[in-house]
Write a structure and sequence with these properties.
By secondary structure, the protein is an alpha+beta fold. The protein folds into 2 domains: 94 residues, Immunoglobulins (Immunoglobulin-like), CATH 2.60.40; 88 residues, no CATH class. The protein contains 7 helices and 12 strands. Strands 1, 3, 5, 6, 9 and 10 form a 6-stranded mixed beta sheet that branches. Strands 2-4-8-7 form a 4-stranded antiparallel beta sheet, with no helix packed on it. A two-stranded antiparallel ribbon has the order 11-12. Helix 4 packs parallel to helix 6 and helix 6 packs antiparallel against helix 7. It is rod-shaped and about 75 Å long.
Length: 227
């Protein structure tokens, strides 16, 4: 008998943490608060603006708003404006580090209520091409290189490096034949080569105008060039 009682007590003790968790969770509601954002992805250091709605029985404060990355709470300077008893406008500056983040709001409705919203901080285009040396080492396709060079052309030193690398590339439009699209992009990205590249573009246009397709019988066709 003693062993049976001890076994029952042991089972109850094992179930106690689980039952406590159920009781604890039953005191929360995950449906009484809504977090609204204009988008789900942001740039580093961008200001996040969000609207919080809920049937609050107690006013929200900045102490009810939390910001996390990988379940680690981050110190954040939050600003809050109360629109009415059910709506709040919140804004704060995002971190510089790209990644997945989470906003959590804990408020008081008829019971304790919680809402969460995931957002992503993404790298800007220019950040992906931090240096022209990395572009050269990675040997990016010509079109990608041209677009990246244009994005980084706001700095004189960087622009000069881009021009030097472009001049040395065998597949550059200035050194060999390339598509009309890449040629036009090159004219925009490299102003110092504009005159030379424009001449090539006009030559391509004249060449295409003089090219005719002659269709013969039995599905045969020939190309001829009119000089």
């Amino acid at each position: 008998m003693k062993n049976e009682k001890a076994l029952k007590i042991k089972k109850v003790l094992l179930l106690f943490p689980f039952l406590s968790l159920l009781i604890f969770l039953s005191s929360f509601s995950f449906a009484d608060i809504t977090i609204k954002t204009s988008k789900t992805s942001y740039l580093p250091s961008e200001t996040l603006q969000l609207e919080i709605e809920g049937n609050f029985t107690k006013s929200l404060s900045i102490d009810n708003i939390f910001f996390y990355r990988n379940d680690l709470r981050l110190p954040t300077a939050v600003f809050l404006s109360k629109i009415n008893d059910k709506r709040y406008f919140v804004w704060f500056d995002l971190p510089k580090e790209p990644g997945i983040y989470k906003i959590r709001v804990i408020g008081y409705c008829n019971q304790l209520c919680i809402a969460e919203k995931r957002i992503e901080i993404v790298k800007p285009v220019a950040y992906m091409y931090e240096s022209l040396s990395s572009l050269e080492l990675e040997k990016l396709p010509l079109k990608t290189f041209i677009l990246a060079s244009k994005a980084l052309s706001y700095e004189d030193e960087t622009r000069k490096k881009a021009e030097s690398i472009y001049r040395k590339r065998e597949d550059a439009c200035i050194n060999s034949y390339c598509s009309t699209e890449n040629l036009a992009l090159s004219i925009l990205a490299f102003p110092n080569f504009r005159e030379e590249l424009t001449k090539k573009l006009k030559a391509y246009e004249r060449s295409n105008k003089n090219l005719f397709l002659e269709i013969k019988g039995e599905g045969n066709c020939t190309f001829s060039k009119n000089n």
